Amino acid sequence: MKKLILYGAGTVGKGMAFELTCRNIPIECFCDSDPAKCGRYFAGYMVRALDEMKRIYSKGSFQILLTLGSNTAANVKEDFIDNGIFARDDFYDENEDPLRIMPLFM
Questions:
Q1: I want to staple 30 with a disulfide (CB 3.0 to 4.6 A). Which of 9, 18, 22, 103 is the partner?
Q2: pLDDT for residue 17 is more than 70
Q3: How many CB atoms lie within 10 A of CB 72?
Q4: What is the pLDDT of residue 106?
């Protein structure tokens, strides 16, 4: 099973971490591009920088769940893909939703 990494150590991320923990869905860590958040714990999970996360977790061993506001998430995802930071298949598949996470965003 791939490790679930939450991107976005903010208000939405905190709520998602709480909901996922309550549903016994394992979270590996948070990831964030804000250096002030990296290296600290947020909602009980370590926040890693993008480069650190990519160094620690090999391609195909993780899936990223964007825990950002809905207006921001789509743009961030496309920016990551367009800039070669992550591939489309690095992200949690909302369409298949194997962990049944998407209703938590409603």
A1: 9
A2: yes
A3: 13
A4: 66
